[in-house]
Amino acid sequence: MLNLHLLFPLFSSVIFVFGMMFARKAISRGASAWTGTFYGNLWLGLFWLLVGVCRWEVIPVSDWWRAAIVGLLFFLGQLFTYMAFRYGDVSVATPIFGVKILFVAFLSSMMTGQSISATVLIAAFVATVGVILVQSGGGALQRLERTRVLLTVVTALIASLSLSVFDVLLQRWGAVSGAMPFLPVMFVSASLFSFVLLPWVNSVSTLKSLRSLRPMFIATVLMALQAMGMTIALSQFGDATRVNIVYALRGLWAIMFAWLLAQSFEGGERYASRSVMLRRAAGALLLTGAVVSSLVQ
Question: Could you give the CA distance from residue 136 to residue 125 in angstroms, rounded to a whole number?
Answer without folding.
Answer: 17
